[in-house]
Amino acid sequence: MPLSASDLLTLTREGLYCPLGRFHIDPTWPVKRALITHGHADHARSGHGHVLATPETLRIMAVRYGEDFCGTRQEARLGESIRIGDVTVRFAPAGHVLGSAQIAVEKDGLRVVVSGDYKRAPDPTCLPFEVVPCDVFITEATFGLPVFRMPDTSDEVKKLLASVALFPERAHIVGAYALGKAQRVMALLRQAGYDQPIYLHGAMEKLTELYKREGIPLGETPKVAAADRAKLHGAIVLCPPSAIQDLWSRKFPDPVTSFASGWMRVRARARQKGVELPLVISDHSDWPDLCRTIRETGAGEVWVTHGQEDALVHWCGTQGIRARPLHMLGYGDDGEAETPEAAA
Amino acid sequence: MNEFAHLLDRLAYEPRRNAKLRLLQDYFTHAPDPERGYALAAMTGGLTFKEAKPAMIRGLVEARVDPVLFGLSHNYVGDLAETTALIWPQESPPPSAGEGASQSEAGEGTEAYLKRAMLPSPDPLRGPPSPAEGGGECAPLLGHNNPPPHIPTLAEVVDTLATTKKSNLPGHIAAWLDALDETERWALLKLITGALRVGVSARLAKTAVGALGGHDADAVEEVWHGLAPPYESLFAWVEGRAERPETLNPAPFRPPMLSHPIDEEADLDKFDPRDFSGEWKWDGIRVQLAGGRDRDGVQVAKIYSRTGEDISHAFPDLAEAITFEGTLDGELLILREERVQSFNVLQQRLNRKAVTGKLLEEFPAHVRAYDLLTAEGEDLRPLPFIERRTRLEGFVGALDHARIDLSPLVPFATWEELAAARADPASVGAGEDADAIEGVMLKSCSSPYLPGRPKGPWWKWKREPHIVDAVMMYAQRGHGKRSSFYSDYTFGCWREAPEGGEELVPVGKAYHGFTDAELAKLDRYVRNNTTKRFGPVREVAYGADSGLVLEIAFEGVQRSTRHKSGVAMRFPRVSRIRWDKPAREADRVEALERILARGEREVAPGESMEASE
After folding, report:
1. Any chain B CB within 8 A of the CB of A217?
2. Local confidence band at A1 (pLDDT 50, 70, 90 cut-offs)
């Protein structure tokens, strides 16, 4: 009997599992052997026996969970084929955050690609997505509706700088996911010529230091001291999304509440969060890029995971591509995909 | 269109009044004529387009986008204009080249790539976003022959919508939507469907325009009714390039003079009773009756609300009475058999859409006049109150119209006498009208009529509010300065439950009356006593043995079908927090029903408007 995709990957309680290689990908539960696509907490959990991931992802996990976040670990070099059991795996950049990768699982000429979270838009803090031709493509669908077309990020950053210019006496509090989004926003601000210190909430400090150690220049990023909050007129302050509505943010001078997220595409979502200055900056693929990527992989079959599966499955149908939703539990990257559904 | 769209976009997210004002001023300063004038018209409700309907827009989208995908998206976004703006197809841009190189070189390590990628882009602050925005930027292509998409100006949109046949409109609108970016599409759709909903009142927009030249909103109101979109003469005046526009309206609106609430303990001792004149404070709506003759000698009659809205059409019975040339300030009331009816009765007339003969007969509108601003072309506002009052008495007497009478003075020699009148108006001549009186007004005899709310000359001294003790049931986060604080409280009183026993039912909601320090304590209380969450709303613990008692002050009670309790309070606020009082000792709904039964009807609708100003 010829090999089928479900021989290579199947869905278990812990998440995607490869029976032939006896490993999980991004398991939501501690397992013996895990391959991790990227460092966001819902994909990279602590307590696995053995972890295979890119060097950057391993270092991110060590910063988040401590050096003993797993039993043993192995670095996956991008593009390098690694034999595990009866299958070969290969990591390819996913363009999502620093160290993020897709994982191709292959045997006897049949290739399944697990995209993890990915984006096609350029990002100065991580390697760009690489198209890996495959038979079955497992795609995320966080922003899987045609209303999600993300604008050019440099225009979004300009909106922020224009607001700082218009309200020089007010602090601008920008909610951003602590891993990836925050550093991308800092890098974009630097690209736009902003050379003032960018202040950080304590929760972002360690990961930002890590990015700097990885060779990404982010300029001066002091941590906000509690006593200084009231003095930060006109400053840009980055904090986790949960903190923008927190009393913490009210201590700043007449704060402008901002949030860098793909969800900011929808006004009602921004208003629900009390966001005055939405910045549509997403680390996920928007609708056109989801569609483009599916086409470019040449996959004859698509499995659609976390997000708006229905619309993407419908679209694949109109393109003559076999598609099915894969209802995995436990995903949705905390800060960004703290979806309205989950929050409601 | 672009600048207007970005203004609306920013306003829609801005909760603070002063920040809105800054955004508006910034726009009015930079946008050219006639664009800014049409923008002003859109924000002051001066533009309406009859033909552009949601069904037409839906039809346009469904002709371009898979209806299944549109349906899923509309469900998700929840707003037709926004869904349409976001989903409208646009040409796919060439591969992005924005933030850095998009491909890593073969064999290049992450760090090397990132160093290269971090090089500043050639011109990070380049010009306005390209019209085909949506994922990348369009570098200008040398030698391309396609003309750039035509982005309509606001003026063009307004003109086209006003002059195009209905059958040709979809084509125009589609062409615009093709040319615009998402924010512009959203703004265009909001504009043509007539619902901007960006939280800007006409008054705020006028305030922003006036501020360009150091004028206040009242100065703008003075000239407003003689002007029409795109208001070029208005902008020329505030920018000091032209004389003040002459109003051609023979019956213009004059911004009213407003009062402050008096603090009887702090203020009264400082004043000499001989310097003030007393009047009843009527529980109606503040209006201005303006009459005059146009160039052809035809009588023009206008009734304005206190914000300058022309409400003549709603009161044709009263407009008929404006046979004079002049401007009267007074209270609109319903009189039956010469008796002033309660505000509840007046509200039944206000709430009707169609003004029918039956309505006019059952709810005859009257004005009780208390000031005269102009008469026969003479501006009386600079005169002291006492002189205007004499002129007013003569004017109303000469008019001799059953619909317009004089608000009587309340004589007093000492503050004690006035306090007695306030406590019991019937005893000092108000008679049966006493139920429609909500306090007294104090007006400085020597003060001219000053638009706005000058502190000192006019004071309102309202009757004591009602008080009940109620139990906090739900709390909601506030806005603006109070966002993140649970500052809006729904509270309930006890009644017999249908299934037996006692239950608390909501009777109202209050969001002010406490200090910032008290708010911090209330917020902590809500967070520590939450039992359920409904989005932004939290339910707190309440019952016979748990719950926080709030003393609520309010001005009256109305029947309400929206509240489970059947009653609604008017103008409720927290007057004290009763940390000490057990919830079981809070008041019962019957206490409110008794107030309702007594026919207590206080507070003018103007009060709630004032509160929201």
Report:
1. yes
2. low
